[in-house]
Amino acid sequence: MGKLHIIDHPMIMHKLTLMRDKDTGAKDFRQLLSEISMLMGYEITRDLPMEDVAIETPVARMAAKKISGKKLAIVPILRAGLGMVDGLLSLIPVAKVGHIGLYRDPETHMPVEYYCKMPPDIDNRIVILADPMLATGGSASDAISMLKKRGCTSIKLMCLVGAPEGAKLVMEQHPDVDIYIAAMDERLNEQKYIVPGLGDAGDRLFGTK
Ligand code: PRP
Ligand code: URA
């Protein structure tokens, strides 16, 4: 079974509280999401393998640590996942970026696929799948399936706010995927929005409502 990592660092909790506030505008919402993504990226990359490399400092030779193994890719789920890309790239500037387009049907709340573009060697990379909201889990679960269909075997799901229903679905359908999330909220409402949540992440990020 995949692990659920709650990344409740005080800096992240403080910034998330500002994001949740309904009076926070798009500019600050975007900035805060980017900052939190960078901080979460620090935890998500904690278990990357390292190797010793021989270097020479101005003082002496030494065996120094370097990240080894597979390279990374960041894959946001459009639209709201886009808000997490810059923060992650500031930490991992050499990562490649793929995009998955999914929207929730307003009636059924089921995800509908409309776009997918991946780096050619995506199957050989550790993928950080980024989406701030994990509600029913349908979008994240379908996105993971799309990545697996393209050969990905190492996937980490990074979200900001989730509901227990969403985490349960992803863990059941993809037991090989770890979930990294800042807060697990109480529940979903009838419209399948997270309660208390932060509203519609895409609309708040891009000012579309
Ligand atoms: C939101 C969010 C997730 C999805 C989560 O996207 O960014 O992708 O809903 O819901 P789920 O867990 O129930 O699938 P939305 O469909 O609103 O699209 P948008 O980002 O383009 O606004
Ligand atoms: N998508 C959002 O943007 N917010 C929610 O609460 C649920 C799905």
Strand runs, count? 13
Unreliable stretches:
none
Q: Which ligands appear in the coordinates?
A: 1-O-pyrophosphono-5-O-phosphono-alpha-D-ribofuranose, uracil
Question: What structural category arises from helix and sheet content?
Answer: alpha/beta
Taking all residues together, what is the mean pLDDT?
97
Instruction: Report on the biggest sheet.
Output: 9 strands, mixed
**What coarse outline follows from CA principal-axis ratios?**
globular
Q: H/E element string?
A: EHHEEEHEEEEEHEHEEEH
Rg, rounded, reads 18 Å
- Tell me the β content: 25-35%
Residues in helix, %: 25-40%
Please, could you describe this protein's structure?
The chain is of the alpha/beta class and 209 residues long. It contains 6 helices and 13 strands. Strands 1, 4, 5, 6, 7, 8, 9, 10 and 11 form a 9-stranded mixed beta sheet that branches. A two-stranded antiparallel sheet has the order 2-3. Helix 1 runs antiparallel to helix 2 and helix 2 packs across helix 3. The longest helix has 19 residues. The chain is globular, with a radius of gyration of 18 Å. The termini are far apart. Bound molecules: 1-O-pyrophosphono-5-O-phosphono-alpha-D-ribofuranose and uracil. The site of 1-O-pyrophosphono-5-O-phosphono-alpha-D-ribofuranose has 24 residues, from strand 4, strand 6, strand 9, helix 4 and helix 6.
